[in-house]
Design goal:
Layout (H helix, E strand, L loop, with lengths): L4 E4 L5 H14 L20 E5 L3 E5 L2 E5 L14 H10 L8 E7 L5 E4 L11 E7 L2 E5 L9 E5 L4 E4 L8 E6 L12 E7 L5
Antiparallel strand pairs: 1-10, 2-5, 3-4, 5-12, 6-11, 7-10, 7-12, 8-9, 8-11
The structure holds succinic acid and fe (ii) ion.
Fe (ii) ion binds next to loops.
Length: 200
Amino acid sequence: MVEGFRFLPEYFPPPAQKALVAEVLGLLDENPLYRATMPRTGKPMSVRMTNLGPLGWISDISGYRYGPAHPETGKPWAPIPQTLLDLWRAVSDYPAPPQACLVNWYEDTSRLGLHIDADESAKDAPVVSVSLGSRALFRRGGLERSSPTSSMRLASGDVVVLGGQSRRAYHGVDRIYPGSSTLVPGGGRINLTLRRVTRP
Ligand code: SIN
Ligand code: FE2
């Protein structure tokens, strides 16, 4: 398997998970979830998303990019919660803070195809991911789309660090296990990924 992948099961205990979900939900009024579209095809993505932090990851018909404002409200993204900045400091081994926290909201039938996170210049920084709510079947691959893959379940409170070689590795979410958690209203899953976009 690819070097640099770290799995920190139940990094956040249930009370901290609850507090984090409440904090993220509280930011959604100003910073609403929206349905992004895929480049070229304009097909809607199966997850709804929003961002927190000075930069947010945006996908639309013209491509993928980072931008300072919500594409629907035109307002700056809300700040990244302190708990997540603390997490980054604790696990990233990186000298500068994250600039983007992508919020992916999975319904029972949502999935995320195999991809690499490739839109950041700071490739030396890891991507740090937090799972909240229903369990997910996460697929880890290698450096090529055709590399062998393996699957693992991600549960609420788990943290994954994609560092080292694994920062450039394919990954995706094959499915959600409906009803496996009641933490997120409606029974879905929230995944938060912290990224450093520009080199410090
Ligand atoms: C992602 O690759 O952006 C999200 C991964 C996940 O939902 O666990
Ligand atoms: Fe990703």
